[in-house]
Amino acid sequence: MEFATFADRAAAIEAEPADLEIVDLVRAVLEDADADLEIVARFVQGRVFPAWRSRTLDIGPNSCYEAIARAAGTNVGSDDVEDRLAEVGEIGEVAASYEFGGQQGLGAFTAGNDDSGSAGGAGDELTVREVFETLSELAAAEGSGSQDRKTDLLFGLFNRCSSEEARYLARLVLSEMRIGVGEGAVRDAISEAFDVPVEGVERALQVSNDYGEVARVARDEGLDGLDAMELEVGRPVQAMLAQAGTVTDALEEWEEAAVEWKYDGARIQLHHRPAESDETAPETGVFSRNMEDVTDALPEVVEYADETLEEPVILDGEVVAIDDDGAPLPFQEVLKRFRRKHDVEKVREDVTVRPVFFDCLHAGGDDLLEEPLTTRHDRLRAVLSDSDGPEVNAANIEGLSLLWRTDDPEEIESIDAEALEGGHEGIMLKNPESTYSPGRRGKHWRKRKPDVETLDCVVTGAEWGEGRRATFLGTFELSVRAGDDSEERRSSGSAVNSQTLETVGKVATGITDEKLEELTELLEPYIASEDGQEVDLEPEVVFEVGYEEIQTSPTYSSGYALRFPRFQAVRHDKDPEGADSLERLERLREA
Ligand code: ATP
């Protein structure tokens, strides 16, 4: 296809406001693309390479401005391009404002005499294939002088462009195509053009992340061809994402939840193929959430894979920074390592990272996307443990995220508390039956982070524990001040007593034994009376608690109950007068 034809079609699409019409125009351009279908299916979305390839053109805007200026003529400098850009705000418009062609000055040789064999000079028609091949050559240029080489190659292309072609070439090069073609439009257009069901296209896109290949297979091999497309070790897929969610919703929707710690690091997808013989080396690729290749920045992950994995796999997980004792460090630390291109070994001495995997998309030749989460996790466990060895405790498998299945909110609370105590971000709640949906932010994965809003409540009662916790106070009764927040009350110094407090709930679970011991020591001196296990406390100590929701409830004197209250901290700096009021609770409920 001539690039001029592509530019015309792109202009028509850009001018079309209606989504359905856009799909129809994309369908038509795909049908007419013939041998260039793969390229056109990507170009129309503003991509030169498939989404899974980390490859970029690696050319800065300034080189592009310079190439445009040179192709536009001897009187134009890149300053002029920048000035026009500042005025109109869009590079396509700027490129289209010049007249190109026939610049035979310095650099013109690249268009005609380069090794790629592309025909040069103004006059002959540029094709989409030539644009693709020249941009591929440009992307591959490395080392000293490569930026000049890239600019020369780009100049050679602009030099052969009409204004309209230049508009779309400039946008393509700077990843600013923006003609209103989203991924859904190309998917639907492929389905319509080649008469294959949209679901088949969608699945093939999920496993391949290449609109070009999917379009070609749909046209040449139909649905059977699409169905035969599989994950490939070494070719990243999009990560499944999470929604924010609550324990209440998760347990209402699913019979039980799979609960995992939420690690505070960066998402990674590991692709590994073990060495096939003593002569060959294992192949490992580590990719970011955006499918960018970050292998070189994370040698620990590569070493882990080489030591642990015995079959070809694709694993999903998180890379976390750890201290000398293996305890997780905050997210900021991992950022010092992630995507680093230089001095990796030097920075590695300061910040150590380790991978934790929570999903397995492919193992030993089997694609597992359609399998339920628990099956995938079992497979993950087998992959990461020595499968020939004795049954191992999952907690001892290095690099494996633990997964609990439960329908008990209290158990979830304690997993959450343990996670927070261990320096993790919170918990993830997952539907144990769910399949893996690449790129989807569905409701099957829910992230529960520490609550944003917290309440400072007075502890007005407690219960002695049972069994191993018999010497600890637990199940703490929480109250808020019944009065208003007026300055008058505060300054009048009226003390808070049990008459001026209203109960709002009990926080029971989610506190470790160590913490219970500490809280018991703190609260024991304030025991006012005891009745069996139940204890009344003088209102002296303030707890900061998180919660999922505030509900109306006849159970507590305030008329409200905190749903899933979570102990966060003792507010040593606050006395009961400084605790939150019923008024604030009502305001939060309305918010
Ligand atoms: P967003 O995905 O909303 O853009 P984000 O990148 O900050 O935001 P969150 O949505 O807060 O991430 O949480 C999802 C992320 O949590 C995952 O992408 C992953 O990196 C991380 N994570 C940590 N532990 C797990 C786990 N056990 N299961 C799934 N994801 C986990």
TrEMBL record:
Its EC number is 6.5.1.1. It comes from the Archaea. Residues 358-482 form the ATP-dependent DNA ligase family profile domain. GO terms for molecular function: ATP binding; DNA binding; DNA ligase (ATP) activity; metal ion binding. Its cofactor is Mg(2+). ATP binds at residues 260, 267, 289, 318, 358, 441, 447. GO terms for biological process: cell division; DNA biosynthetic process; DNA recombination; DNA repair; lagging strand elongation. Pfam families: DNA_ligase_A_C, DNA_ligase_A_M, DNA_ligase_A_N. The active site is at 262 (n6-amp-lysine intermediate). It catalyses: ATP + (deoxyribonucleotide)n-3'-hydroxyl + 5'-phospho-(deoxyribonucleotide)m = (deoxyribonucleotide)n+m + AMP + diphosphate. Residues 428-447, 572-591 are annotated as: Disordered. InterPro entries: ATP-dep_DNA_ligase, DNA_ligae_ATP-dep_bac/arc, DNA_ligase_ATP-dep, DNA_ligase_ATP-dep_C, DNA_ligase_ATP-dep_cent, DNA_ligase_ATP-dep_CS, DNA_ligase_ATP-dep_N, DNA_ligase_N_sf. Keywords: ATP-binding, Cell cycle, Cell division, DNA damage, DNA recombination, DNA repair, DNA replication, Ligase, Magnesium, Metal-binding, Nucleotide-binding. DNA ligase that seals nicks in double-stranded DNA during DNA replication, DNA recombination and DNA repair. Belongs to the ATP-dependent DNA ligase family. This is DNA ligase. It comes from Natronorubrum texcoconense. The lineage of its organism: Archaea, Methanobacteriati, Methanobacteriota, Stenosarchaea group, Halobacteria.
